[in-house]
Amino acid sequence: MFENSPFDMLDKAFKALYPGKRYKAYFDLDMKDEQGESVYGFTQFPDDGDPIIAVSAELSIKYAVEIFAHELAHVAAGEHEGHGETWERCFDDIFNEYNRIGEELCRTAK
To answer: How many angstroms separate the Cα of 79 from the Cα of each of 6, 59, 67, 85?
Structure first.
């Protein structure tokens, strides 16, 4: 197991900031939107369960981490927020906490 998995670090950041919110996340191949266009990630908000995040399994880790953070911000902001100020604040907060966790891991690994 990787001590510094960026996906685990994002999950930890999200849970620290939004302890009451839950989600399920998956990697998926050949993701398409309703128009058949390729997408890198999406979040669904089912009526009867936790939000579902899908991230393209075809992305490099670098880009998959950013897409995962993007989708986590949708979960944090709520289903109807889109990409407005609330979503932006959530995205920034998640990434700042993610970076703080990464810096802490670097300090303790030395």
So the answer is: 25, 25, 17, 14
